[in-house]
Amino acid sequence: MKKKKGILFSYLWKHKFSYLLGLFTLLIVDYVNLFIPQFTGEITDGLTSAALSIDGVIAIIMKILIAALIITIGRVLWRFFIFGSSRKIEYALRNDMFSKLVTLTQRYYNEHKTGDLMTHFTNDLEALRQSIGPAVISAFDAIVMTALVLYRMMVYVDLKLTLLTLIPMSFIAVGGYYFGEAFEKRFAEKQEAFAKLSDQVQESISGERVIKAFVQEEKQAEAFAKVNLYNKNKNMQVVKLMATVMPLLDFIIGLSYALTIVYGGYLAITSQITLGRFVAFNQYLGMLVWPMIALGDSITMISQGRAAVHRIQHIFDEVPEIQDDPHCDELENLSGDIVFDHVSFSYAEDLPLAIDQLDLTIKKGETLAVLGRTGAGKTTLVNLLMRLYDPSAGEIRIDGHDLRKIPLHLLREDMAYVPQDSFLFSDSLANNIAFGKQDASMAEIMQACRDACVHDNIVDFPSGYETRVGERGVTLSGGQKQRCSIARALLKDAAILILDDALSAVDTDTEGQILENLKRIRQDKTTIMIAHRVSTVQNADKILVLEKGKEAEYGTFDELMEKQGIFYEMFNKQQLEKQLRED
Ligand SMILES: Nc1ncnc2c1ncn2[C@@H]1O[C@H](COP(=O)(O)OP(=O)(O)OP(=O)(O)O)[C@@H](O)[C@H]1O
Ligand SMILES: [Mg+2]
Predict the structure, then answer these.
(1) Which end of the chain is more exposed for a tag (fewer CB within 10 A), N or C?
(2) 214-238: per-residue pLDDT in tens?
């Protein structure tokens, strides 16, 4: 994994010294470890031949104790260096991943599920950390320890005996390589299954009310059981593979033991090696077992980590569709003259045009109302204006600058937006409203709320502006949420204000009041107001009626009434409905 110069490489590179230090201390620990069997061997030989005095024994024991002390300190150090680095890398990656995620555009989020994205932050990062922490230690330790122990066995005990132990071990190496790939594949599937599972849970929680309203709990539970089963099966496949590999590993290790003990015993009995060396040899053999098992573990961890890196890499490789042009125009701020010049747009190549050759001019200080049937392209129009997508053809200009030449931060700073589906964060109302202007004073926040006609509602809550929204907080009504969302946009006092059907959930009296406030505070600023009700748009400077992404009608209220076209019909129909309601 480290060989692949992907996203991970740069993070590892940053911590190279820590890793080197960690591996160096690990090397020392391994090296010192080698002497312990030799010391015990010396004691055995010394005692069998009665050549060792009690002082001699104590001296050797002291050596063992010193070695043990070095090993203990070394172990603390390599943990600190390597585990510490892996945690730091995990932390940095998680931050960078989040920063990257927020640069990605609407289209990316349309195409990727929330649960899937969440899994990157949890399971995948965890797997990755393990592969650059514990797995590095195990792999390095296994290789170094094996090499050192084998070397010691050869020079201190017996060459032929050592070669014998190599036979079963070569099986382990080949097997490790062979099973590693299988592990990686199964782990990738396992992670993917988990992502699906998270998705299902996430969607069921968000859609909980719809599920209840349509009495689909059982169906939903069945669907969940299916995904859960799939997840279990994928986990079982990993377990099965492990269940095959691990005992096989044990068997090979056992075999290795049996072979060497038989042959080593023979060598000791025939006095070709001393008893002490035979004892040392057995200890060495014991020291080989752990690295072998650890190697197996690290193979699985590294496979898992590789699968995770691939998944994470996708996020980092994603080029945000909308980015700043390297040669942006130099601008201080926007004043709000908007021009749509022959703009066409479709969400995907095989989809029909959502905006079709639209020409439109909105002067600074004007209020444009946009009407049209659902799906006519109203939201799409403002999506393009906010540059959530770029037009497929044509050009949008603000103050004469092509949108693509305006720095994104400036463009969005000078725009305030009330989305069609209002969204509040689980934070206090005051913080929610000050979201776009963090340094706003309480008086400003309250004024924005008065303008949005939500102040009275807020002060009625027991905690007023400190009321927490959402989880474990107060749940606001649809209309209250919508008006908080309007207040948030008003507070920003931006050059361009966009209200996407933002008065749909308020009664007509309140609507009238809000419209009046808007007229006052937006006097010489540009406002775009999407609406369904004719009453909402009566006082707009210009009205655009969209149909299938095209301009169907455009003009002032009087002009459109005179024309007796679509708008006129809508007006009459809604008047009639109003009368019927009032009767
Ligand atoms: N993310 C998307 N991907 C693909 N098609 C989309 C996407 N969003 C909208 N559309 C399509 O584009 C067309 C215009 O949608 P848009 O949301 O602009 O309509 P609208 O006028 O805002 O409707 P409404 O009044 O219901 O809000 C519709 O046909 C819709 O299906
Ligand atoms: Mg819409």
Answers:
(1) C
(2) 888 888 999 999 999 999 999 999 8
